[in-house]
From TrEMBL:
<dbReference type="InterPro" id="IPR039426">
    <property type="entry name" value="TonB-dep_rcpt-like"/>
</dbReference>
<keyword id="KW-0813">Transport</keyword>
<dbReference type="InterPro" id="IPR036942">
    <property type="entry name" value="Beta-barrel_TonB_sf"/>
</dbReference>
<dbReference type="InterPro" id="IPR037066">
    <property type="entry name" value="Plug_dom_sf"/>
</dbReference>
<comment type="similarity">
    <text>Belongs to the TonB-dependent receptor family.</text>
</comment>
<dbReference type="GO" id="GO:0009279">
    <property type="term" value="C:cell outer membrane"/>
</dbReference>
<keyword id="KW-0798">TonB box</keyword>
<feature type="domain" description="TonB-dependent receptor-like beta-barrel">
    <location>
        <begin position="279"/>
        <end position="729"/>
    </location>
</feature>
<keyword id="KW-0998">Cell outer membrane</keyword>
<keyword id="KW-0675">Receptor</keyword>
<keyword id="KW-0472">Membrane</keyword>
<dbReference type="Pfam" id="PF00593">
    <property type="entry name" value="TonB_dep_Rec_b-barrel"/>
</dbReference>
<feature type="signal peptide">
    <location>
        <begin position="1"/>
        <end position="23"/>
    </location>
</feature>
<dbReference type="Pfam" id="PF07715">
    <property type="entry name" value="Plug"/>
</dbReference>
<keyword id="KW-0812">Transmembrane</keyword>
<keyword id="KW-0732">Signal</keyword>
<protein>
    <submittedName>
        <fullName>TonB-dependent receptor-like protein</fullName>
    </submittedName>
</protein>
Length: 773
């Protein structure tokens, strides 16, 4: 080789060595995790899902080029101290690690099979339940805030025949057949403004799990559904706060780290309706009080005037989190929910004004303490003690008869829950536990003229044990959960055994088959004695089963089979179901016909199908849901033992809606339609010798079809790096459709039959403003 060639070779080798050193130095330089994730997404064809705050300030070196995806995930976990959970379709969820054992504790078996179900922040799990994560929640028609109990009514098979969150009907069931839990505590009140606003502040809520069938055996009660509301349970180590208002209420929340082991979470909300009269409040007022003593007395011809109404509501929630060690956690919860209404009734007699104050107070006060222990990488135990106290108190004056009526309904629910979870391996998880509940229900009525006082107090204690196994196949195509729960009711000395099953199998890359079944029972229910109880606003009162011919234990059996097609952001889902519920009473069904004052025991059966088609584009999500169901009563002592339509028999229900997202702007528009609920009409020819109304066969006709169009829009603002804000506008019932949601008949002094019609909300605007920092 010539000298010139040697020189060229030397220069080339020197250059390569320099480049190698430079490359090594570059690879050793730490870079922001967000930048590295973008690089990995392009190279490995995966998608990362995370909250920006989770990866903030995380830096690491660029991983080696030759790592497999599994090796890469292990490397990222080690370097960032975060959890990287690989889902199907190469989606990877990044979350903060609870403690050194969290990688074993994460609910890996409950795989997410559908993301962004209807809208952002709603998921469907492999065990059949729907999960709503409020922090990630997008937008739904008519909603500008993630109202928990309004949101779940967007799901197929769930609606409210009277547009309230205190009367949610899941596949033809009454509201008291829903088990509503707040951090594991059973709630007996779910609404503000007597049902028009959810009673649960969403801004400290981590997730809401909704199960219509095939529920876990750790849940008792709730023969129709389980709505499990879970608060944030992890230390964020970062202060967060927010506040906002709309035309009904104002609220605020804060997460306050006290040190590296403790955190305080606080939220509060209060109505502004007793300070400011808004168009939204005007519509709510008309809707709530249209069939109450307050409105009826205003229309009276007996020189009685109702005035000076004062209404407000509030809720306060606190949670104290204490991580004693990396493997021991302590949690304290407190929540109070309150509705307060009062108004004056004035009668004018002999030029003298007599003023009487009517009032209605509704409150649910709960508290709990929970201890969680991670024994090792496979075994976890939790223990919780809670107390839930519900109180409904009313004072009602009958001015004409100079009568005062006091009514009270109180529920004290003491619960103890102990649960153990063993992660045998990545494919099998075992659960077992014990639960104890003592429920005391009191009903008091006190009348001054004639003097009368009734106090009824019932106590029930239930012991429950359960066991459950969760399995997922090695190829992740099959998920199965099977369990059995046994309840022993002390009062009746009876055992009730309840098997539950949830199976999901992936037929190929696009189709998934699902089968759900369960047996359930419950000992608490709500009844209506008289339609004007509690001022005609909160008519329902809680009672306990006595297991005889008066109030039996409610039992249910239901099964469902479904098939789901999911490809290229197109979801087509169909689920057929059947549900049998026995042990219901006529007083729990709200009859306002010939059965209004009859006490009979019966059952109902509902059969139907829920269908959904949901297509998502880059900025648009649109869906069409349709439910068909046939829901029939059967009371042996009524209607000659023949079946007839259930009061909640909504035969057809259809929703067509869509959302549009462009940068910080979100829009939603939706149309809701369903067939009218059944109603009973009087006979044309009445017996004039009595003032009793004679009716046709029960539920012989239906109300007119229900139609409502909703619109909502939100816009995100960023004032600084740490302060965000949002503005929202919504219109409920955009077309101001006059929907009839109930009708019944009464007689006046002349024995003339009059039809009373209750209407839904009219056009109802709302505006909100929120700030987070």
């Amino acid at each position: 080789m010539s000298k010139k060639g040697v020189l060229y070779l030397f220069v080339f080798l020197f250059f390569c060595n320099v480049c190698s050193v430079i490359a090594q130095n570059i690879s050793k330089e730490k870079q922001p995790l967000a930048k590295i994730l973008n690089y990995i997404e392009g190279k490995y064809k995966v998608n990362f899902t995370y909250v920006d705050q989770t990866i903030k300030d995380k830096e690491l070196q660029l991983p080696k080029e030759f790592l497999t995806l599994a090796e890469l995930i292990t490397f990222l976990k080690k370097e960032t101290n975060l959890d990287f959970i690989l889902l199907e379709d190469n989606n990877i969820v990044i979350s903060k690690r609870i403690n050194p054992l969290s990688s074993f504790i994460t609910q890996k078996l409950e795989e997410i099979i559908i993301t962004n179900y209807l809208t952002k922040g709603i998921f469907k799990k492999s065990d059949g339940k729907i999960v709503i994560e409020t922090e990630k929640f997008g937008i739904l028609p008519g909603l500008i805030e993630p109202d928990i109990l309004q949101t779940i009514q967007a799901l197929p098979g769930i609606l409210s025949v009277d547009e309230t969150v205190s009367n949610i009907n899941v596949r033809g069931g009454t509201h008291d057949q829903n088990l509503i839990l707040w951090d594991g505590i059973k709630m007996h009140q779910s609404g503000h403004f007597f049902g028009l606003v959810s009673a649960f502040n969403p801004y400290l809520t981590k997730s809401v799990n909704v199960s219509k069938n095939g529920t876990s055996v750790k849940y008792g009660d709730g023969v129709s559904s389980v709505i499990d509301i879970q608060q944030s349970n992890n230390l964020d180590q970062e202060a967060k706060a927010g506040a906002g208002f709309n035309l009904i209420h104002a609220d605020g929340f804060a997460k306050i780290p006290l040190n590296n082991k403790t955190e305080l979470q606080v939220s509060a909300r209060r109505s502004i309706t007793d300070f400011i009269f808004t168009p939204t409040y005007d519509q709510y007022l008309q809707r709530v009080f249209q069939d109450s003593d307050f409105s009826n007395n205003q229309q009276s011809t007996n020189n009685i005037v109702s005035s000076n109404e004062e209404f407000y509501f509030y809720d306060i929630a606190t949670k104290f989190l204490y991580d004693i060690t990396d493997t021991d956690q302590l949690r304290f919860n407190f929540l109070t929910i309150n509705n307060n209404l009062s108004y004056d009734q004035k009668s004018i007699e002999n030029n003298t004004d007599n003023v009487f104050k009517n009032k209605l107070i509704q409150n649910n006060l709960v508290s709990s303490i929970e201890y969680l222990k991670y024994w090792n990488s496979t075994l976890t135990t939790t223990a919780q003690v809670y107390l839930s106290n519900y109180d409904l108190n009313a004072t009602n004056f009958d001015v004409i008869n100079a009568q005062r009526l006091n009514q009270e309904n109180e529920v004290k629910d003491l619960g103890i829950k102990i649960n153990a979870t063993n992660h045998v391996d990545e494919n099998l998880k075992l659960h077992g536990g014990y639960q104890f509940n003592e429920v005391i229900v009191s009903n008091i009525e006190d009348v001054n003229t004639p003097s009368f006082r009734s106090v009824v107090k019932e106590v029930n204690r239930t012991h429950s044990i359960y066991g459950e196994a969760e399995f997922t196949s090695a190829n992740k195509n099959t998920y199965a959960r099977i369990g059995i729960r046994t309840n022993y009711i002390e009062k009746f000395s009876e055992f009730f055994t309840e098997p539950r099953l949830s199976v999901s199998h992936k037929l190929d890359n696009n189709f998934r088959l699902e089968f759900l079944a369960e047996f359930k029972s419950q000992t608490t229910s709500q009844i209506i004695d008289l339609q004007n109880d509690f001022l005609g606003i909160e008519k329902r009162r809680w009672i306990l089963s006595n297991n005889d011919d008066d109030v039996p234990i409610i039992k249910s059996q239901q099964g469902a089979v479904g098939i789901h097609y999911n490809k290229n952001k197109l979801l087509i889902s169909a689920e057929a179901f059947i549900k049998n519920v026995e042990g219901i009473t006529t007083r729990s069904q709200g009859f306002q016909n010939q059965f209004q004052f009859v006490n009979a025991i019966g059952k109902y059966q509902v059969k139907g199908i829920d269908f959904l088609i949901n297509k998502q584009f880059k900025t648009i999500s649109t869906w069409l849901s349709y439910s068909f169901s046939k829901n029939d009563y059967k009371f042996d002592n009524l209607n000659n033992g023949n079946s007839f339509a259930n009061n909640l028999d909504i035969r057809h229900a259809l929703t067509f809606a869509g959302t549009y997202t462009l940068d910080d702007l979100k829009l939603a528009l939706g149309v809701n339609w369903h067939s009218g609920k059944p109603t009973t009409t009087p006979l044309e020819n009445q017996n004039t010798t009595t003032n009793l109304i004679e009716y046709n066969t029960p539920n012989n006709e239906r109300l007119k079809d229900y139609l409502r169009t909703d619109l909502s829009a939100t816009y995100e603002l960023q004032f600084s790096k740490t302060v965000d804000a949002s503005i929202g506008v919504s219109i409920w019932n955009l077309l101001d459709k006059k929907n009839s949601i109930n009708t019944y008949y009464v007689t006046d002094d002349d024995n003339t039959i009059n039809k009373v019609e209750n209407r839904s909300l009219g056009i109802t605007p709302n505006v909100s403003f929120r700030v987070k920092f």
